[in-house]
UniProtKB/TrEMBL annotation:
Pfam family, one: SIS
Name of this protein: N-acetylmuramic acid 6-phosphate etherase
Organism from which the protein derives: Raoultella terrigena
GN (gene name): murQ_1
Organism ancestry: Bacteria, Pseudomonadati, Pseudomonadota, Gammaproteobacteria, Enterobacterales
Domain SIS intervals: 1-109
Keywords: Carbohydrate metabolism, Lyase
Cross-referenced PANTHER family: GLUCOKINASE REGULATORY PROTEIN (PTHR10088), N-ACETYLMURAMIC ACID 6-PHOSPHATE ETHERASE (PTHR10088:SF5)
GO biological process, one term: amino sugar catabolic process
EC nos: 4.2.1.126
Enzyme class: lyase
GO molecular function: carbohydrate derivative binding; carbon-oxygen lyase activity; ether hydrolase activity
InterPro entries found in the cross-reference section: MURQ/GCKR, SIS_dom, SIS_dom_sf
Length: 126
């Protein structure tokens, strides 16, 4: 079954729908560095002249070759093979948390030690 992650063209189409331009910056996330949707989005951003950064586990991957900025934390092999990439996923999640926290601070969305300008939202469980 074809999934969105495997659709190269969909990456570019979704950026076009968001009116992504050369005034924007793309931060692409791909553990393997081989996700077609990510390549499509990265190539579209690159074609517009927008800066492109990638967060991946493979600094020599195809996605990394398309990026202006490469963030590639080295987490080493998984303890048990066959369960996806939990260490890599955790590393990406932690880096995104640090990045968004830093952006919130620089953007004036932190008062004392509290995040402000947030809307309360409880996602549905299940």
């Amino acid at each position: 079954m074809e999934t969105a992650a495997n659709d190269y063209d969909l990456g570019a189409l979704e950026l076009q729908a968001l009116r992504f331009s050369d005034n924007d910056m793309l931060l692409a996330l791909t553990v393997s560095g081989k996700t077609p949707w990510v390549w499509g989005a990265m190539r579209h951003a690159w074609s517009l002249g927008a800066p492109v950064a990638v967060l991946t586990q493979h600094a020599d991957s195809e996605a990394a070759q398309l990026a202006d900025i490469i963030v590639a934390p080295q987490t080493g092999p998984e303890a048990v093979a066959g369960f996806g990439n939990p260490k890599a996923q955790l590393a990406q999640r932690q880096l995104l948390n640090m990045l968004t926290t830093g952006l919130a601070i620089r953007g004036g969305r932190v008062f004392s030690n509290l995040r402000v300008d947030l809307q309360a939202h409880q996602p549905a469980l299940g």
